[in-house]
């Protein structure tokens, strides 16, 4: 926990920096905020609110990413024990990565990594 | 007080400029862009980023309304200047620096409420889009009832929804999935966008489902002043390169265009530099990769780029054997449908449509660029 | 055995990063002028960061109709704060502000905050173009993140530690860039991508009128762009302890070496930005997954075998 204290201090400083900038801007700005501006898409008003369910065409990539990313979480602690455990741990880890890569290659061949 | 004025003066010495011009103002606009670049003032991307709005020429009623709307969204410190003649550019821009640095003037100029003054008076847009939606939904009438229910919110004053806007409605995408669809008029105030052009698009995510392009303040068949072929082609090249995120070569292309338009005599030198630029674009391996293979739709952009270079070169060399192709609006619409946003911007910049004179033959448009 | 700087270092950190950022902004303006054929002198360029900051400080803020002001504010602040927190594990010389045991994981975690931050800023504005920009960044994240993590892991395997100071200590003889060049290149590219910088600036591109930042003005824009610059500086500075030997080097003191190397990495990224057009994420995704991920895995395997061959250490 003692290690974390300086990081928390940095967090505090960061938050203070943002607050200071905002306070400074409140004093320095030539005018109070401009409210209720319509979003810009070229000058003409949009017909609907832009916040909508976005057509995320790359959701398959998201799935593949999630599978891979979970694995990466195991790989961080693995780096610490790889020498103690010896070649067996290397075979296990990279065998697993090879399996995942096979999945990526399959997804690629299915066109999951292209969406335009 | 003095400190605040000093801060303001320091802040606005290098203002970000938004240049807005209607159809047919391209020559004067090029002069303005040249002067802005000479001063090393950045070109703003959007009203939020703008300090100075430069209105080029005398905008018609439709563009005039758009400019009022855009101006409302520009945060203080801000200044606005209209330029109708080349000689007004330098004094006009000088004057904006004075206005920007004047604290009292800025306090008076600053807006408080960003609701648009001309919003009620844009029936043409709404009408257009209503027709759109009807034609778009005729083939799958399942949601028609709900469609109409919400449809009327934004026509009837729209006080019950914040900002007077409705929420997005569902519509089918190309795979038959029901997804939110937004109706957005793109342009005329966008970076690297042809003067006076508006494309009403239906967007799902960043994919364009439907597009209809039109020019503001132009009667059908009306003759409009156009740039000479070489300058026109170079403008288009500069826009495509800038949209591709290659701002250095884009700026150089603009510089070449300015010399073609306003420079005296040294066309040989210009031609050499044009060739050097063309070689550089050719040599880039990333550019074809991001613009797409020659088979895909974005390959069309690459071909258009090549064609613009040839056209500019031919016009410069004096040989009139190369006739630049032009794109009419229906052809542009067809090409935009199904494109995602970034690709659509490139397509518009490469097509660089201009209002067609009434007598132009409408047959030469297919496979234009 | 913690070798962290005294707590005063934490107060010093933002100032140091901002100073480097100032230099980087100026260098970028000079590079941009050169690329455009309209040179900007160094004296003008050095004044630029201050001028732009003041411009945004005196600028009026604006709020879009029915926008989510709170989310947008959180997004902007998170970008800046996360960049600072990521920099907390950077050795300034040989000692960092916070010498965390899992320092590499910490850096990774802080940098991923940018995903949420940029998306929140894009979403909160209730604007079509900023929404597109925000989603572009998420898609870009899916593309750059894995090679980035493999690069971090490769360095960790090389040092058999997740502590950044241990990674530096392991490079006393040989810089890691020599045995893991692929990981270094992947790290450099992902550093640019996470700060949506250079060829990866589609989330704030001109084609979407500024993208995620399209509706930001005044101090909102200042916080957002400062956060972005700090993230760029922090991530390029991280390349120094991971691959370039940290503070190790002849003649100069450790802090000077860190500074020189950081500026060199930033210089490379600035040159990259002005030479290469924007690579859109749908292109980068395919390249990243099909080329960079296998390449960085192979790199990790090679380094693992080297480490095993030496019997550890």
Kindly list the characteristics that best describe this protein.
A: 116 residues, mainly alpha, 3 helices, C: 313 residues, 70% helix, membrane (chain C)
Characterize the structure shown.
Chain C: Its main location: membrane. Chain C: It comes from Actinomycetospora lemnae. The complex is a heterotrimer of chains A (116), B (369) and C (313). Chain A has 116 residues and is mainly alpha-helical. Chain A has helices at residues 4-28, 59-85, 87-109; one strand spanning 34-37. The mean pLDDT of chain A is 86. Chain B is of the alpha/beta class and 369 residues long. Among the domains of chain B are: 123-207, no CATH class; 229-351, no CATH class. Chain B is built from 14 helices and 7 strands. In chain B, helix 9 runs antiparallel to helix 10. Chain B is globular, with a radius of gyration of 22 Å. The model of chain B is unreliable at 120-160 and 359-369 (pLDDT under 50). Chain C has one domain (8-14, 64-309). Chain C is 70% helix and 1% strand. Chain C has helices at 8-36, 42-58, 69-87, 103-124, 128-159, 164-169, 176-179, 181-194, 218-243, 254-275, 281-309, and one strand at 62-64. Chains in contact: A-B, A-C, B-C. At the A-C interface, helix 1, strand 1, helix 2 and helix 3 of A face helix 1, helix 2, strand 1, helix 3 and helix 4 of C. Strand 1 (34-37) of chain A pairs parallel with strand 1 (62-64) of chain C.
Series of secondary-structure elements of chain B, N-terminal to C-terminal: HEHEHEHHHHEEEEHHHHHHH
- Please give the oligomerization state of what you see: heterotrimer
Which regions of chain C are unreliable across 5 or more consecutive residues at pLDDT < 50?
none
How much of the residues of chain C is beta strand, in percent? under 5%
Amount of helix of chain B: 40-55%
- Count of DSSP E strands of chain C? 1
Major beta sheet, strand line-up of chain B? 4-5-6-7
Radius of gyration of chain C: 19 Å
Number of domains of chain C: 1
Q: Note the main sheet of chain B.
A: 4 strands, antiparallel
Mean pLDDT of chain C: 89
How many beta-strand segments of chain B? 7
Broad shape of chain B: globular
**Poorly predicted ranges of chain B (pLDDT <50, ≥5 residues)?**
120-160, 359-369
Separate helix tally of chain B: 14
Tell me the distance between the termini of chain B.
57 Å
The number of distinct helices of chain C, counting runs of at least 4 residues, comes to 11
Main location (chain C): membrane
Membrane topology (chain C): Multi-pass membrane protein
Keywords (chain C): Membrane, NAD, Signal, Transmembrane, Transmembrane helix
Transmembrane segments (chain C): 70-92, 112-135, 142-162, 174-197, 229-248, 254-272, 284-308
